[in-house]
């Protein structure tokens, strides 16, 4: 309960950081994002976008830049960037080859299905959310080294040395970061039973140096991924976790592997979309929603108009119901992906939709109820001068993960175990509930919503896009693609535009407040939709890159954060 309050406060804090646009979209002047000729990185921090860009300027490719950007986010964006989390990457090489990397966290070997239940079988949610028992075996370092091994062109030392320099010279604390550090200070001290680097009192504009992280990165440069999984850094991690009551062992670290996966691929009119496969629900749900809405003429209905909102909402309702039942770690759960994203099934799924009246979620029969994830994730997109494109979403799960900090490494550790269903039918920290396919098992990967996505148009790379936002990730990526494709927006306008979200249960449509036409909201109410403008002041924080007709790149860096597009 206590931590549910923390979560709500976090959301409020996130909200208070946002600058409300002064104009509604109807009077919004179209805005182009940063435009570059050849290469670009869009991420949550300018420092990370710059370091990734510099690597490409030195002749590195998008994959080299990925390694640098991811580690720079671990330095400058500890809210979601770390060495102690995990993520997913979808790529499209210049020659058209596509693929995906899964470096999602895993349950430790000693994890059990009921590990978060008390003697009465009730979920003790704090245990999966805060502190050492909430931590999944981290995948980040295995992920960046897998990318480097397969596609890297520059030596690791050349790629990571600028990141070491950033950690040593420090990054400038933004207003949004200061508010978050202040907010979490007491919890950092409580969980760590001591102060930590990030529990100091900061002012906006202060410089924060993370010397310990610089030292860890130097060891990783020298020893590679094994430094983290079998070396000194791994031992420091395991000692810290076990000292605080966690169950991760050296064997867990040694057994961790990032996995190359086949991405989900589907078409939407003349677009070909490549997105993340399970253990993320992102690609499957995105495919289901887009295939369900494809027969409808959204551009005729208009952006954020009643009929458009209805069609998208009804498709989301049906896709999220399926997510709850069918999706989990593909190494543990058989998932009928081809059927789920196939046209016959999806046509049948939308057969009872009517513009006259909202479908009730209680009428969508799926038997199980989904688990959802937090919004403290981050996304970055990269395109290089060779024509390679990547889309990467990474997470610690909650803000600063479990809040357990590893001072001798210089990083926070995730609380990704909360993305499992602790018990079918019982809400997680976000008031949402989960299903059997996503039950805890040793070495299993917890279900995610992260949706790093690449879009091709007429066989060529067209867009790289993704976002944080927990269960709203999928619907935010969807709306951003539609904003460009159906409503002709620039990339910047597409990421800035007001968003809405439906996830089957609870049966409400969540809108970013005061940005939608009240007459449209009233017309939706009359058709039976429950409108919620209170729960979430912002939905997603999308970053993307779009190829313009003249071949230049436009960055879309979401106004909702400190996100920045940099390139050349
Ligand atoms: N923890 C957020 C996600 O994986 O979707």
From TrEMBL:
Pfam families named in the record: G_glu_transpept
Biological pathway: Sulfur metabolism; glutathione metabolism
EC number(s) stated in the UniProt entry for this protein: 2.3.2.2, 3.4.19.13
Residues annotated as catalytic: 377
Coiled-coil regions listed in the entry: none
GO-annotated biological processes: glutathione biosynthetic process; glutathione catabolic process
Keyword Transferase: yes
InterPro entries noted in UniProt: GGT_bact, GGT_lsub, GGT_peptidase, GGT_ssub_C, Ntn_hydrolases_N
Domain of life: Bacteria
Post-translational modification: Cleaved by autocatalysis into a large and a small subunit.
Family of this protein: Belongs to the gamma-glutamyltransferase family.
Protein name: Glutathione hydrolase proenzyme
Native organism: Aquimarina aggregata
